[in-house]
Write a structure and sequence with these properties.
It is a single chain. The protein is an alpha+beta fold and 154 residues long. It has one domain (2-152): 2-Layer Sandwich (TATA-Binding Protein). It has helices at 2-25, 70-82, 138-152, and strands spanning 33-34, 37-38, 47-49, 64-65, 87-93, 96-102, 109-117, 122-129. Strands 3, 4, 5, 6, 7 and 8 form a 6-stranded antiparallel beta sheet that branches. Helix 2 (70-82) packs across helix 3 (138-152). It is elongated.
Length: 154
């Protein structure tokens, strides 16, 4: 009886993990830039954004500054993103770029967004996990790595 209950419990856990993995594959349809703003981070600590309030230390990350042409800045964003592991271009529309980043296992995906504000001479960005509550700092670490690559391209 105990063996059977253990097997049932294991099946439920694996089934739940499989469902989570399936949900993690679905690309959100509510991302993008609207009136110069990316979607705000949720309350959970699995997202960073340069458009969050600086007083929101769990979500805020400093935007990137550039001088000159917005198209050149976007080219630089694309070059830096290409250096990040396991990333795929999802879409680009003018000054907005959307990227999907996968975990090493390929099961979970994060959504990265970049918005080049040519007038303000700043690149805003957002990186968020699709599922779960905590990402153990993965999105912040990824964007810090992106920043290092961006700066090295200068």
């Amino acid at each position: 009886m105990l063996k059977r209950l253990t097997l049932i419990g294991l099946t439920l856990i694996l089934g739940g993990s499989a469902l989570t993995a399936i949900l993690a594959q679905r690309r959100p349809d509510n991302l993008g830039v609207e009136n110069g703003k990316l979607k705000p981070c949720p309350a959970s600590p699995n997202c960073v954004s340069s458009q969050a309030s600086p007083s929101d230390t769990s979500h805020y990350i400093t935007p990137l500054l550039f001088s000159g042409d917005g198209e050149a800045a976007m080219d630089r964003v694309r070059l830096a993103v290409a250096e990040l592991p396991r990333t795929t271009l999802v879409s680009q529309k003018g000054p907005y770029l959307r990227i999907e980043a996968r975990t090493e296992s390929g099961i979970f995906a994060d959504d990265l967004e970049f918005y080049v504000d040519e007038e303000a001479q700043v690149v805003h960005f957002r990186s968020a996990a699709r599922v779960g509550y905590s990402d153990l700092g993965v999105n912040r670490a990824r964007m810090d790595e992106f920043r290092d690559i961006w700066q090295a391209l200068d």
